[in-house]
Design brief:
This protein has helices at 2-25, 43-50, 52-85, 91-98, 100-103, 106-120, 126-151, 154-162, 167-195, 199-204, 212-222, 227-254. With 255 residues, the chain is mainly α.
């Protein structure tokens, strides 16, 4: 068991190492990315937060991510309820179809969405990004809510119905509180899937609406500085904070 634990620890460290290296790279004093760094400074973070283009891309992505979280959480929860509780024909096939955006390469989805969105003038605007990111994020919600529903005892809902509650009341007062950790985890995954998505954004962005992922792609091509590492570190910190919050909430609920 000790050898297995060491092997697993080494694999995890190897997977996390590129992410960990980005943090000191964002503190470099040089005008180019280097590792190990020759000094420490916060000027690249100041450059990021003071640059209007970076801030516009960040706020654009944040608005899309928040809207995507709401729409994907609602749609993913409804889909999970239909698959787990509903008596739908070919439910397994429907579930596989709903998980398609996680399986199909994002570059293929990006090309397909561009071909559909371009004639409809949905490229580079809020609605186009919301539709695309909802398609990408909904499967994450569906997976977590499906798992929560499968662990939930349906007898509790039947008891609420026998006590006079209607279906909506039973869901709101009994089912939803019990599957809330799964719904919350799905919402976090939906937010992260939207906020730092880059591949699809590369195809459906334009000068009118540019996500932070597309902005990072452009700077990597034409203006590679430690600002990229600073932005990457900010994204990592946001992801860790959200996942940590979900973990603490689940721990408190179990406690």
């Amino acid at each position: 068991m000790t050898i297995l634990a060491v092997v697993i620890g080494c694999v995890l460290f190897f997977l996390l190492l590129p992410t960990l290296i980005v943090i000191p790279m964002s503190l470099s004093e040089k005008d180019y990315i280097e590792f190990p760094t020759s000094g420490l400074t916060l000027k690249w973070y100041r450059a990021y937060f003071s640059d209007p283009d970076w801030m516009a891309a960040t706020w654009f992505s944040l608005k899309i991510a928040l809207a995507t979280t709401a729409t994907a959480t609602i749609m993913g929860t409804m889909a999970a309820l239909a698959i787990v509780r509903g008596r739908l024909p070919f439910s397994s096939a429907l579930q596989a179809l709903a998980l398609g955006p996680m399986i199909v390469p994002h570059i293929v989805l990006g090309v397909a969405l561009y071909l559909v969105f371009s004639p409809l003038q949905l490229t580079g605007n809020f609605l186009g990004f919301l539709i695309a990111h909802t398609v990408l994020a909904t499967p994450y919600v569906m997976i977590t809510v499906t798992a929560a529903l499968q662990r939930f005892d349906p007898a509790l809902e039947l008891a609420a119905l026998n006590c006079g509650a209607n279906r909506l009341q039973a869901f709101a007062l009994v089912v939803l509180p019990n599957i809330a950790p799964g719904v919350a985890a799905g919402a976090v995954f939906a937010f992260l899937a939207s906020f730092d998505e880059a591949t699809v954004a590369f195809f459906i962005s334009d000068i009118g609406g540019k996500s932070i992922g597309r902005k990072m792609f452009e700077d990597i091509d034409f203006n590679l500085t430690p600002v990229i590492a600073a932005v990457s570190t900010v994204l990592v910190v946001i992801s860790l904070l959200l996942m940590g919050a979900i973990h603490l909430a689940n721990a408190q609920k179990r406690g």
